[in-house]
């Protein structure tokens, strides 16, 4: 049985990944946890039977101990990935690291290089690769069912409610504290697009901005908080009362308050960050962005990320020399339209767990990967770093208005790596 420890018992770490051990206790056991929030730390310890001496208030405390187990799940906040991962690799841990690898492009490269140098597993949580839906799309493309890929139109429909929760009120609202939207939310998309095309991206351009969730767009009669007598709360689509004042013990209400009672939830939105008016937060990440990508096989990609959607899903059209594939992830539909006139509709098998079963499947594969001693797996750190660089280049283009040559950009980063020593 694989023994592991969790760094960061937040929503992803505790519920998406580590819960696998509760369903498959014969495969993996968590023997330690590091989490600054006492309520979350104790909840995780109770779930997994972790004794007090293996409960730590910080990752620094846990990694100050001699190596406790074989593997670590590092699910800390974005800007708390690099240091614990580098330290853990040095200590000989195999690691499953939540995305993004780092908020800094150079650090992302250094992590991949360090894992290779130490001959340790560093698997990045690009969970979409493990989703049976996208695995089916990849398998179809590899058979050449639509010929050579020429163009892709790809849309990440963030969903107005998801965006307001995570990227206006929530943990990833401010890139100065976490990372840019294109990296935090859309690194999955950059990874999938790179995987589907099967070649390296050579050029990136991007445009986007924070246009709506700003103080000047606050409606007349609104207040600092939804619970402060806001005159338009009943009509507001972003009302915290509508979204969080309920006893739902799953989804986003659990991020607001672990205790699923109305009293606890009301206190949370009255006093905490999730009760703020969406037009009066300290958010600075974009609410819409487009990215154009060119690959070295001449395939082109147009990617759109938007907060202003009713659905929270990805939709796409992949155009090849003999047909096209259209997809709607939420509907679990893959439609193949051949130029001959033949049409096929595929609905891939689903698995238990979040993200179309991908959260479950990445944990299953990580456990098997450690058992095999497979240093690469399905999402090797070097490949993940390359797709991260696509996101960093897109943000650089958005901010400067310049088209970024990815090879030149990578060379500059590596020069920085050499200078860093």
TrEMBL record:
GO terms for molecular function: nucleotide binding. Pfam families: GFO_IDH_MocA, GFO_IDH_MocA_C. Residues 138-383 form the Gfo/Idh/MocA-like oxidoreductase C-terminal domain. Residues 4-124 form the Gfo/Idh/MocA-like oxidoreductase N-terminal domain. Gene3D superfamilies: Dihydrodipicolinate Reductase, domain 2, NAD(P)-binding Rossmann-like Domain. SUPFAM superfamilies: Glyceraldehyde-3-phosphate dehydrogenase-like, C-terminal domain, NAD(P)-binding Rossmann-fold domains. InterPro entries: Gfo/Idh/MocA-like_OxRdtase_C (IPR004104), Gfo/Idh/MocA-like_OxRdtase_N (IPR000683), Gfo/Idh/MocA_Oxidoreductases (IPR051450), NAD(P)-bd_dom_sf (IPR036291). Belongs to the Gfo/Idh/MocA family. This is Gfo/Idh/MocA family oxidoreductase.
